């Protein structure tokens, strides 16, 4: 009751002060919205905070009276029939924009790629919050978004950038295809600087275009594989439809490949520029040591690839595998496809090269080591 009275008093005060000016009595303002980062298959809030205030009184407005009720709260509380709030989120893409969500008067429309994945607060006006909650994050969600808030004749907007970290990758042991039992699969991911992927992470990777016709263990002890381009031999339980094929939950002693997940790189992967010749596995290990580093793990290489590393040289990694990352498509490097290329020993895509074979090398230096050596 008391706060109602106070609200009305405050409104009267500001309405009077606004009157002498011919400009619109109220104005919307966007708060500073910071960039956002989320992990693959996780959730993120794209911030968009706005306030509605009286412009003309701004310079002379006394500080709000002490107490729980702020002047801006009072203004938000003004019922203004016919002045519905409209929130529009778009993604800025090459050559235009894509509608993510439009919300007005309780009606919410969502763009095709964002179905069941985005929402805004149900009473954005009263809280000055038009932030967008996005779930089941895909790598392709990364980019620049615009938040627009329209209220009556007023309109304010801001852009927010979103980064999405993390990548799912297929891993095969050096011995043969389908040679990992469940404990072995968990250990294999750990040994290559990653964790065993969850079904949610694999699903999101599939949405981003991941296609791999090899059954692999996942964290829930299920075995699945992602197919975006259906073809004979990769039908699984879905026939000719794209999707993640599943064998269901399996006994731990059965043997498959594995899908691993790595989040953002906590350090640096590099190809030492001093190295001119191809090296054996042992020489590569020694070379990294000269740089106060170690041979990079496959997990680290995938994370570096995700962050943009591009190098068209088959190179040694810590597990004795040989790979290279492509982020810039070129016909002579991985046939114009993007991703991490793996060199297998046999045509049937099994086996690692012999340790005495000669290749390049990727070294890894952790964040602390990097910082220490820069300051040394
Ligand atoms: C997002 O990624 C870009 C490029 O990788 C980087 O420059 C930027 O600092 C990142 N932003 C955030 C908020 O992490
Ligand atoms: C692939 O080829 C190698 C060498 O010929 C063989 O040892 C291995 O069993 C084969 N693996 C599969 C899955 O066919």
UniProtKB/TrEMBL annotation:
It comes from Larimichthys crocea. CDD domains: Link_domain_CSPGs_modules_1_3, Link_domain_CSPGs_modules_2_4. Pfam families: V-set (PF07686), Xlink (PF00193). Residues 25-163 form the Ig-like domain. InterPro entries: C-type_lectin-like/link_sf, CTDL_fold, Hyaluronan_bind_Proteoglycan, Ig-like_dom, Ig-like_dom_sf, Ig-like_fold, Ig/MHC_CS, Ig_sub. SUPFAM superfamilies: C-type lectin-like, Immunoglobulin. Residues 167-262, 268-365 form the Link domain. Residues 1-18 form the signal peptide. Keywords: Calcium, Disulfide bond, EGF-like domain, Extracellular matrix, Glycoprotein, Immunoglobulin domain, Proteoglycan, Repeat, Secreted, Signal. Disulfide bonds join 213-234, 312-333. GO terms for molecular function: hyaluronic acid binding. This is Versican core protein Chondroitin sulfate proteoglycan core protein 2. Belongs to the aggrecan/versican proteoglycan family.
């Amino acid at each position: 009751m008391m706060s109602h009275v106070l609200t009305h008093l405050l409104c009267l005060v500001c309405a009077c002060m606004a009157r002498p000016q011919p400009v619109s009595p109220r104005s919307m303002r966007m708060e500073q919205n910071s960039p956002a980062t989320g992990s693959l298959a996780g959730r993120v809030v794209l911030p968009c905070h706005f306030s509605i205030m009286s412009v003309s009184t701004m310079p002379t407005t006394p500080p709000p009276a002490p107490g729980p009720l702020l002047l801006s709260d009072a203004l938000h509380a003004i019922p203004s029939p016919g002045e519905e709030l409209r929130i529009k989120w778009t993604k800025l893409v090459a050559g235009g924009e894509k509608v993510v969500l439009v919300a007005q008067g309780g009606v919410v429309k969502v763009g095709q790629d964002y179905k069941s994945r985005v929402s805004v607060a149900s009473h954005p006006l009263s809280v000055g919050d038009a932030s967008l909650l996005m779930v089941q994050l895909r790598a392709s969600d990364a980019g620049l978004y615009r938040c627009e808030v329209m209220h009556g004749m007023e309109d304010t907007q801001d852009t927010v950038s979103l980064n999405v970290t993390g990548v799912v990758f297929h891993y095969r042991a050096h011995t043969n295809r389908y040679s990992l039992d469940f404990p072995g699969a968990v250990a294999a991911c750990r040994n290559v600087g990653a964790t065993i992927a969850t079904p949610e992470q694999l699903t999101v990777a599939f949405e981003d275009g991941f296609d791999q016709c090899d059954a692999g263990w996942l964290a829930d002890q299920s075995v699945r594989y992602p197919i975006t381009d259906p073809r004979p031999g990769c039908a699984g339980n879905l026939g000719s439809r794209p999707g993640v094929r599943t064998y269901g939950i399996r006994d731990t002693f059965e043997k498959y490949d594995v899908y691993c997940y790595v989040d953002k790189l906590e350090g640096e992967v590099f190809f030492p520029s001093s190295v001119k010749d191809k090296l054996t596995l042992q020489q590569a290990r020694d070379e990294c040591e000269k740089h106060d580093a170690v041979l990079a793990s496959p997990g680290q290489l995938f994370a570096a690839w995700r962050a943009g590393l591009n190098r068209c040289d088959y190179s040694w990694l810590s597990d004795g595998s040989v790979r290279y990352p492509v982020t810039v498509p070129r016909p002579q490097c991985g046939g114009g496809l993007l991703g991490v290329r793996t060199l297998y020993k046999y045509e049937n895509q099994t086996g690692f090269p012999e340790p005495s074979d000669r290749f390049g090398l990727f070294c890894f230096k952790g964040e602390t080591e990097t910082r220490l050596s820069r300051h040394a």
